[in-house]
Each structure stands twice: as structure tokens, then as C-alpha cells.
Amino acid sequence: MDEDRAVCVGLDTHKAKVAVAVAEPGRSGEVRFRGEIANRPEAVRQLIEQLAEKHGQLRVCYEAGPCGYGLYRQITALGHDCTVVAPSLVPRKPGDRVKTNRRDALTLVRLLRAGELTAVWVPDPTHEAMRDLVRARTAAMEAVRRARQQLQGAPAAPRPGLRRPQGVVARPPTLAGRAALRAPRPADRAAGAARRDRRGRTSPRPLGRADPGAGAALVAGAGGRGLAGAMRGVAFLSAVVLAAEVGDFRRFATPRQLMAWLGLVPSERSSGSKVERGGITKAGNGRARRVLVEGAWSYRFPARVTGELRARLEGVPEAVRTIAWKAQLRLCARYRRLVAAGKNANLVTAAVAREMAAFAWAIACQVRPAAAA
User: Fold this and answer.
1) Are residues 356 and 230 in the same domain?
2) Which residue segment(s) compose the domain that 332 sits in?
3) What is the C-alpha to C-alpha distance for residues 364 and 110, in angstroms, rounded to an integer?
4) Residues 126-162, buried b or exposed e (16+ Cβ, 10 A)?
5) Quick one: which H or E segment has residue 254?
6) Same domain for 220 and 351?
7) pTM score > 0.90 for this model?
């Protein structure tokens, strides 16, 4: 498709309405607001067919958001190019204080015609379902953690009708204290049971056992099988989170791009001869970054193949084993060297997590997805 001759269409999507703007090809082409349509598949299909009948090939864009990727799949199925835009990377004027649906649609279509928009990677429906499952489990784990912290931070003064065991009044409750706190509150017990049940139902592990095609195949397709089988600090659930959040590792041309996408590279504010670097940017996917940072703590111990890791190595390709062992040797030595130099342990862990991402990228390039094979 000749992008210079295609008509650009910008969509500002919302739950009920979609604002539409059209830009003619060429630098001096007309840019006009076409109006709003209902956010329904039939209305979108009629709009695309009308514009295609009048202008021919179309280039459509809209910002990623809660509306999902259904609009992208519908437009591409109709034979037109569609771009899902990263909202945080859309250029904004510092002095612009007016934001409307009309202005947003016109801004999108102008930037699309100028080639100033950054697209996001669009997962397939199976990958999107696994991502939703992983994020639901993460939300359940966070709810359980918050409830545990609230229980540990309960006020020292007992509630009416509540008797605390002796010795647990002025400090966080022990197991006996927690039992006493739960005893007069049936609603608390029911809420805790509901949270535990939710966490169990949202675990990806039962899905992987019941349907290897939906669970294990997806992880293998993104390189997760090699990660969970060989790489230290990345077990099954961590590999599932990485595979669901990162997707296809091969979309990053170099491991440095993956590090930057994860927000593990240091921030920098340099001008002239002055070079100033700060902490990591944290600009990428927080869930995948958290998994890598948690796994990086395991490299504070010497490099070795434990019994659990040896069991996971069965069936893993030799090339993946070699990369994983090389990662152990380098990262364990790097952790000890930086700590011995007086670096903060948290900073060292972030540095190790950054290099873990590079080794994960190398392993993913070795594990060829079944679909591609």
C-alpha cells in the first residue's frame, strides 16, 4: 500500500461514541471532522465502507485504552491498515489547555499523516485472554496482601467484645492473635475465603494443566518454556507473566530495546558537557519489571544448579541451557562485585534485573514458536 496516497482516519474512541476525523493525503491535504458515530461494530463497519467507497484505501488509527483491540481486528478484517497508538507517546503542546473529542480526533489524524505516532504491539485473542487472566491473578494477590497488612496493622485497642491473647496487644498479631481477630467477625472470615478462592480461580497453573494448548503453548510461543525450564529466578508463574506482558520477544530488534521498554534503563538529563544520570525510568510494563526484579534477588547466591532447577532442565534445548548457565555465572559474579564495591543492594538488584531481560531475550530467540515453525 502506498501510504502517501492513502486517506488517514483518526478515531477518538469512548464507551458510547467514536469521534471521526479524516485527512486527505499530502502535506496540504484537507483535514476535517466528520462527526461522531455509535461505538458499535455495525456503525464502525458502515463508516469504513462509506469512506473506502469514496477514498479507496484507508489508514486508521486510535489510541489504546479500555475499548480493547476489537476495533483493530474489525478494521484489519475489512482490509485496511489500522494502528493502535501509545497514548503516552502522542506529542502534546505544553500550552494546550482545551481537550475535546473533536480536537483529539483531529490531532490524531494529523499526526498519523505526518508519521509522528508510535504504535503498540497488538496481541492475538488467545494471548490477550492469557494476559487478562494473569492480570486478574495479580489483582487478587494484591488484594490479599493489602488485607494481610491491614490485619497486621490493626489498632492496639481491642474492639468491643474482642479479647486478644496475652502478649499481642502492642505488636502485630501472631497466628493466635489472628485467630482471635477472626473469631467474632464471620464477615471477615467470609471475605478472606472469597479472596483465597478468587486467587485460586485466577491462577494460570490449573489452566496449564487442564489445557496445554491454552497455557503451556502460549508460554512456549513467547519463549516462556525456556525461561521457566532453565533460567534462574524465573519459575512457571513468572514465565507466564513475562510471556503475557511482553508477548513476542522478537519484536525487539536488540535487548537494549527490551530493557528500555521495561523501564529498567537509567534516566538521563544531560546538556552540553554536563552528564547527569538518575534512577531507572520505570516507563515500561510494571508487571514484567516486578517479576524480573523479584527474580534478580536469587542471584545474590553463588552460581549452582539446584535440585529444583535440575528437574526443570529436562527437555530444555542445549542452546537454552548454555545461555541460562552463562547468565548465572555473569549475574552472580556481578551482584557480588557491585555489593563489594559498596553499592546499595536495591540498585544492584535493578542492574541484575536489567541484564536478566537481555538473557531472556536471547533465550526467547532460541525457542521458536510452534506456530512459526
Assistant:
1) yes
2) 212-269+279-366
3) 37
4) ebbebbebbebbbebeeeeeeeeeebeebeeeeeeee
5) none
6) yes
7) no
